[in-house]
Write a structure and sequence with these properties.
This protein has 459 residues and is α/β, with parallel strands linked by helices. It has 14 helices and 21 strands. The strands form five sheets. The chain has a five-stranded mixed barrel. A five-stranded parallel beta sheet has the order 7-14-8-9-10. Helix 1 packs parallel to helix 9, helix 3 packs antiparallel against helix 4 and helix 3 packs parallel to helix 6. The N and C termini lie far apart (54 Å).
Length: 459
């Protein structure tokens, strides 16, 4: 593979296109533009982030660890294999761009000087380069948000989802602040490796966006793995104790003060945009109240030749959304038809606990709130033959159908294979298929997908 330390391409003062950030949308756009013969500079501030957050510090390493935990591999061995995988993918992504004659990877920190000019401080020699471009695309992504809890910045053994993945030792006791999807994935993963886990969730209810029956089922499965889940927890303070432990002080739902001591604390309280170093003011780029870059339906900022791709534009924070952002921009530049987020179909999501929790469309409560007349079907995962073969019969399959049109309004799958199965329902919804089509399709046997025969037969 190419060695980033031995770059031979000369950095030019001007490019047709300048892309800031090596994430999914940015790298895919770079390759597409370069293959068209347009000169592209791809600026990435860290040589540990070639390929973007997903490959290096998010979806890929976490899912690799989750898989090894399910296989009951010791944590340290799984940690080493995770690092090998991310290193391989990082180098592969660098090679895939740098080998293109019209593309240049520049490792350095970019900040705007004007709407058309960016200053890049090179990582290795601290040299500064000024680059102008006809078009600029911002793809810097997001990072963990750490709330201003007293002591949280100064205490040791306090981690984000990124820094905890860098720890080679399994924490014996882990406290997680945040009961969202990231917090639950880490809770489930570390519990499977053998850690004692407590989740402190500020919400009054567990998974408040989910229907009650689904949330109850997930709660039952997670707590069955020795994961303690505390709702309505108001964290007051974080501090260290003797013995290099971290202590968390919180008030429970009754107002009583409770102290928890652990070997590690994970802060999983959401994410924030990575805009601090960009000097957006110099380019006149507007941001919203949360700090994300404002874009229109075509992903353009208020500056006509500047776009924002992926997490940084405040849309859904999924790698596959960043890829779809690329498609929207690609079609704008090539004169094709898919040019607006308003044309985007419904998108599924998945939480990689074990079993996975996947969803698309409206939940039962949401459909009723919108005034739909609905039919609802529920199927226990234990009734699916393939789930019994896999040895994981936990969970629930649930779907919501429009009573008047027979269209699928939504589906939630909490079962083994849910992260793959939900794609079938996504296609059905976006193609406007009646639920009977899903019900009567001939699926391979024995498969998890054939559970749709039984689920939709209950409508």
């Amino acid at each position: 593979m190419l060695n980033p330390q031995q770059m031979t391409k000369t950095i030019k003062p001007h490019y047709d296109n300048l892309i800031i950030g090596f994430g999914k949308g940015g790298k895919t756009l770079t390759a597409w533009l370069a293959k068209r013969g347009e000169q592209v500079a791809l600026v990435e501030k860290s040589d540990k982030m070639y390929g973007g957050a997903c490959i290096n510090v998010a979806c890929i390493p976490t899912k690799a660890l989750i898989k090894k935990a399910e296989e009951k591999m010791p944590y340290q061995k799984a940690y080493g294999l995770k690092n090998e995988l991310t290193s391989f993918l990082r180098e592969l992504n660098y090679d895939n761009i740098e080998k293109l004659p019209a593309a240049t990877v520049i490792t350095g920190e970019a900040s705007f000087v004007s709407p058309n000019e960016v200053l890049v401080k090179m990582l290795r020699n601290k040299e500064e380069k000024r680059i102008t471009a006809n078009r600029i695309f911002i793809n810097t992504g997001s990072q963990p948000f750490v709330p201003p809890i007293p002591g949280i910045d100064s205490a040791k053994n306090v981690y984000t989802s990124i820094s905890l993945l860098e720890q080679s030792e399994l924490p014996e006791k882990l406290v997680i602040i945040g009961g969202g999807f990231i917090g639950l994935e880490f809770a489930d993963m570390f519990a499977k490796f053998g850690a004692e886990v407590t989740v402190l969730d500020s919400a009054d209810e567990f998974l408040p966006k989910e229907d009650e029956d689904v949330a109850d089922e997930v709660h039952k499965v997670l707590t069955g793995k020795r994961i303690s889940i505390v709702t309505a927890a108001d964290v007051q303070r974080v501090e260290n104790t003797d013995g290099d432990q971290v202590r968390v002080e919180y008030k429970d739902k009754t107002g009583e003060t409770v102290f928890l001591q652990a070997s590690a604390l994970l802060v999983a309280t959401g994410r924030k945009p990575m805009t601090e170093e960009l000097n957006l003011e110099a380019a006149g780029i507007k941001t919203n109240k949360r700090g994300y870059i404002e874009v229109d339906a075509s992903l353009k900022t208020n500056v006509p030749h500047i776009w924002a791709i992926g997490d940084i534009n405040g849309g859904p924070q999924f790698t596959y959304i960043s890829l779809d952002d690329f498609r929207i921009i690609r079609d704008q530049l090539s004169g094709a038809d898919y040019t607006s987020v308003e044309q985007r179909n419904q998108v599924a999501s998945s939480v990689f606990i074990t079993p996975p929790l996947a969803h698309i469309g409206l939940r039962e409560r949401e459909a009723l709130e919108k005034g739909y007349e609905i039919k609802v079907a529920r199927l226990p995962a234990s009734s699916v033959v393939r789930a019994r073969i896999e040895g994981d019969t936990h969970g629930l399959l649930k779907t919501v159908v429009d009573k008047k049109t027979n269209k699928i309004l939504g589906c939630t799958l909490f079962c083994t294979g849910a992260n793959e199965m939900i794609n079938t329902i996504q296609v059905a919804i976006n193609c406007g298929l009646d639920y009977q089509m899903v019900r009567d399709t001939i699926y391979t046997h024995p498969s998890m997908t054939e559970a749709f025969n039984d689920l939709y037969a209950l409508i």
